[in-house]
Every structure is written in C-alpha cells, then in structure tokens.
Write a structure and sequence with these properties.
The radius of gyration is 31 Å and the shape is elongated. The longest helix has 21 residues, at about 295-315. It has helices spanning about 1-15, 195-210, 265-275, 295-315, 340-345, and strands at about 20-35, 40-50, 60-70, 80-95, 100-115, 125-140, 145-155, 165-175, 235, 240-245, 280-285, 320-325, 345-350. The chain is built from 5 helices and 13 strands. The protein folds into 2 domains: about 1-175, Beta Barrel (Porin), CATH 2.40.160.20; about 220-350, OmpA-like domain (60s Ribosomal Protein L30, Chain: A). Residues about 15-20 and about 180-185 have low confidence and may be disordered. About 20% of the residues lie in helices and about 35% in strands.
C-alpha cells in the first residue's frame, strides 16, 4: 500500500512539473497531535510540487510529502515512531496587496507510521486523512515566494478520527512563465470570385493606397484631417482632432511629486494647449489597486493637481484646466502583475474643444 501511494504521488508530481508554470517548495514545520494518540509534538520537513492554472476557480494543485520523527509519551518507556505523510491540495489565492496573498486549501493524504522499536501502537494505524487550512504567501521576486500556513487534518481509521494540527513555513521557487492565452485567428471566408475579379479589386486597392496621404501619422488622411500636425502619441477623433493622451508619469510610492524624467511628456501637452488656444483639458488621476480605496482616491487627486500645476507653470491658463480623480476605479490593465499595476498608475489628459 505504501509503495502504491508513493508511486501515485510521484507520478502526479511529475505530471505537474511537466506543465509550463510550477513551483517547488521545501518546508519545515511543527505537528501537534491529539492527546489521545500519545504522540508528542513533532518537527517535520517536506517537499512540495505545485502546478498553476489560469482560471478563476482554482489557483494551484499541489502534491507533496512530509517526514517527522517523534516518541510515544508513556510512563514505562518512550518508543520512537517515524511518520511519513503524502498529500494532494487544491489552493485558491486572494490578493491582499501588491506582494501579499491570502490562500485557502483543501485536500487529502495518507499517513504511514513506522515504529522503530517495541510493539506498542496505541491504536495509531496507517490511515488516509482529509485536511483543510489557510495561509499567506509573500512575493519576494517574480520567481521566489515565502509562505506560511496552518492546517487541520482528520484521520479516517485511527482512534475514530484523530486530529493533527500542522504549522508550516516554506520557500517556493517558481519555474516557467505566466500562462498566455492563445491567439484566435479567424480565417477569411472564401468567396467564389474569378481571377479577373481578384485582380481588379487588388488594382483598385493599390490605387486607393497610393492616393491616401497622412502627413502627421494620426490615422486620418490629409483630405479629412481638420487638425493637421497632431503628435502621433495623441488619440484623435475621425477628423484628426485631439481627444486624449495617456501621460507616461510614474510616481514614486505614496508620492505626488513629478519625477524629472517625465516632465518632457507634460511639456508636449503644454505646447499643444499653448498653440491650440481653443482647446481645454481635463487631467484625470488614476492609481493601481494597492492600498485602500480611500487612500487611492486622495493619492490620485494629489497627482492630478500636481500635473495641472506643472501645466500652469509652463504657461497654460489655469481656467482651461479641470482636474478629476478616480483612484483604482478605472484600470486599463490587470492589477495582478507588476507590469499591469505600472500601467494603471497614470495620468490621462482629455482634450475638449
């Protein structure tokens, strides 16, 4: 039975490791058995392998093994016992902050008890068990996590349901990249056209291509462009006039001072406003989801007003500037990755004519 369980766990771990993103976690911890087992508290060491999944239902499936050595606490003699536990867990994570995650787990395992001396068992038989628990994971780097957890295990056959409490510390080494969604390619439908018709269409398209001129590269041809010479980074409407621009202004944590390297982006907006005096501008402040909502609202307000003051310093009439702030309410990328959070910490300039 022990060999079957061990082989099953080993194969499961091998299959897990074969996928694109997985982690390996060495652990240490303590085990606190129910008093009726006569087993003393134990120190344990183990190894786990986990496979990540890209869905909203489950974060990871994890398999592993733990070893512990302890004694039976009896008046006559202290008999030594060696314990091996095999297990499989399903884990669901919830983001608390940028680097910290809370998780819950449920799973099942098998406990093997081997006595080293004597013949006293106190009803402690090899047994399957179920367990559940909670934990915290802290991200040190993209490929290194620290984690701690607390689990409660209930055995099936020994003492009609003995209980064990596990407290565990681990270091997870992550391998592989974040799962990527496959691109969906839609093949164009085949029309029943002749070669002459295809050649005619191609010739017409070439003629159109040759006559379209877009001097400022804003996506609107010069024939239809009512606002020529707009910078390429600005969003324009269907007649080529500016509507908005996402300013690349990355602030330091909890700060609203504009870093020097981003002031040139604000100068570009100021030049447009000073040359196109019929435009007004709305400065919107946004943050990522780190921190409380109340704090993020206040922080986005301070940052929006900081950019507005910089525009005024560059010669823009303050009456043409309106500030608005939204905190974390309008993300443009996922807040689950450092890159996504960086995109969400932004200032947007909305132009009104």
């Amino acid at each position: 039975m022990r060999k079957v369980v061990f082989i099953t766990i080993a194969l499961g771990c091998a299959l897990i490791a074969a996928e694109s993103r997985y982690d390996i976690t060495p652990t240490i911890g303590g085990v606190f058995p129910e008093e009726s087992t006569k087993l003393k508290d134990q120190l344990s060491a183990g190894l786990r392998v986990g496979q990540y999944f890209d869905n909203n239902f489950i974060t990871k499936i994890e398999g592993g093994v733990e070893f512990a050595a302890t004694h039976y606490d009896v008046p006559q003699k202290k008999w030594q016992a060696l314990l091996t536990r095999y297990f499989l867990h399903a884990i669901k994570e919830f983001e608390i902050s940028e680097n910290t995650y809370f998780y819950g787990l449920v799973g099942a395992g098998y406990e093997n008890i081997r006595k080293k001396a004597g013949d006293i068992r106190f009803g402690n038989d090899d047994s399957p068990y179920v367990n559940y628990g909670i934990g915290l994971r802290y991200t040190v780097t993209d490929n290194l996590y620290l984690r701690t957890e607390l689990r409660h295990a209930i055995k099936f056959t020994s003492h009609e349901g003995d209980n064990n409490i596990f407290a565990t510390l681990g270091v997870s080494y992550v391998f592989g990249e974040e799962p990527k969604h496959p691109e969906v390619v839609v093949e164009p439908a085949e029309d029943n056209v002749t070669e002459d018709e295809v050649q005619t269409v191609a010739t017409e398209e070439e003629a159109v291509t040759e006559t379209v001129v877009d001097s400022d590269n804003d996506g609107v041809s010069d024939d239809n462009d009512l606002c020529p010479n707009t910078p390429a980074e600005f969003k324009v409407d269907d007649v080529g006039c500016i509507t908005s621009v996402a300013l690349k202004v990355n602030f330091a944590t909890n700060e609203a001072d504009i870093p020097d390297e981003f002031k040139s982006n604000i100068e570009t907006v100021a030049k447009i406003l000073n040359s196109e005096t019929d435009y007004e501008v709305i400065i919107e402040g946004h943050t990522d989801s780190t921190g409380s909502k109340e704090f993020n609202i206040k922080l986005s307000e301070e940052r929006a007003k900081s950019v507005a003051q910089e525009l005024i310093r560059l010669g823009v009439d303050g009456s043409r500037i309106t500030t608005e702030w939204f905190g974390e309410e309008k993300p443009v990328a996922s807040n689950k990755t450092p890159e996504g959070r960086a995109e969400n910490r932004r200032i947007e300039a909305i132009f009104v004519k």
